[in-house]
Specification:
The complex is a heterodimer of chains A (185) and B (139). In chain A, 68% of the residues lie in helices and 0% in strands. In chain A, helix 2 packs across helix 3, helix 5 packs across helix 8 and helix 6 crosses helix 8. The N and C termini of chain A lie far apart (44 Å). Chain A is an all-alpha fold. Chain B is mainly α. In chain B, 68% of the residues lie in helices and 0% in strands. The chains are: A mainly alpha (185), B mainly alpha (139).
């Protein structure tokens, strides 16, 4: 038996048009629709405690220059581009502030969790660290494909590179991450 | 531990999940809208704050323009027409009288060559000879 899809609601394009006419409700729907995916991307790309602020900043920038959205790519990939720039700006500002050692970062530890879950979480934490160490282009291509599920064409358009270059970046990232995880195991 | 690409992608898909779960989506939407509303209010706030100064400046401008118009109407001064100013016309040497030609030669402060035919009188020269003479004197 097939379950009919829930009503997906108005399309992003319709909501963007409504926001352009001043409909705040449309903007709120767009935020609710895309904020978590954006937060996942930013969290994995190296944002730490400031993910909320970065998500807010990204939407703020996006809505302010909504006329710049041509509709050639999806609204989400456009958001990822803006979020990526917002993260870069935040990192630049952070470099001017005192550095907090990595060991002081919050690490969720559940003493009651079964051993295999603990191991899985440990591997994921290691992966997060290794992803953060990748060159920015490799990291973003890897996350856009492996985490956001974007195709190479969308990635290339978002990151303003060629499809071939995006593929190469992805394979380099995968190779480096596999090697790093196998080395640590 | 062997890690294949599929495992890696599966793990990568979970990256950032904790950050996403912590996010209060409704609060984010409200905060974004508040910032956008504040942006829209900014020009109005600027006008409200500077309204007295803008009003004074506008009054002064209107008074100055009005005063100028009233003054011009009362003095009856018509607008001064634009006059094309040509370079002073240089009369042809043919139009000069003998006395004027003598003045020209005097003003050049050049001693006339002691040619016989010139020594007689300048009046004996025709126009082309005079022109020739002047050109030679001017070098």
């Amino acid at each position: 038996m097939t379950v009919p899809d829930a009503d997906p609601g108005p399309s992003d394009a319709d909501l963007i048009a409504a926001w352009s006419r001043g409909d705040e409700g449309a903007a709120a729907v767009l935020v609710r629709r895309h904020a978590r995916a954006l937060a996942r991307f930013l969290g994995a790309a190296g944002a730490r405690d400031d993910v909320d602020d970065l998500v807010q900043e990204t939407f703020y920038r996006a809505f302010r220059r909504i006329d710049g959205f041509r509709g050639g790519s999806s609204f989400r990939t456009w958001l990822l581009t803006i979020g990526r720039n917002a993260l870069k700006d935040a990192n630049r500002r952070a470099r001017r502030r005192p550095v907090i050692p990595l060991d002081d970062r919050e690490v969720a530890v559940d003493a009651e969790a079964p051993h295999h879950e603990t191991v899985a979480r440990d591997v994921e934490a290691r992966l997060a660290d290794e992803v953060a160490k990748l060159p920015p282009m490799q990291r973003d291509v890897f996350l856009m494909r492996a985490q956001q599920g974007l195709g190479y064409e969308a990635i290339a358009e978002t990151l303003e590179t060629s499809v071939g270059a995006a593929r190469v970046h992805y394979h380099h990232a995968v190779k480096r991450l596999k090697e790093a995880l196998e080395r640590c195991a | 531990m062997r890690v294949n690409e599929r495992d890696l992608e599966r793990m990568a898909a979970r990256l950032g999940v904790a950050a996403a779960e912590r996010l209060d989506v409704d609060a984010t939407a409200e905060a974004v809208l508040q910032r956008l509303r504040a942006d829209r209010r900014l020009p109005l706030r600027f006008i409200r704050r500077w309204r007295p100064i803008v009003a004074i400046a506008a009054t002064l401008t209107v008074a100055a323009l009005g005063g100028g118009l009233i003054y011009r109407a009362s003095t009856g001064s018509a607008p001064v027409p634009m006059v094309a100013v040509d370079a002073p016309a240089v009369p042809s040497i043919d139009a000069l009288s003998t006395a004027q030609l003598d003045q020209v030669l005097d003003s050049l402060d050049i001693e006339a060559p002691a040619h016989e035919h010139l020594a007689a009188s300048i009046e004996d020269l025709d126009a082309s000879q005079l022109e020739d003479l002047l050109q030679r004197m001017e070098g």
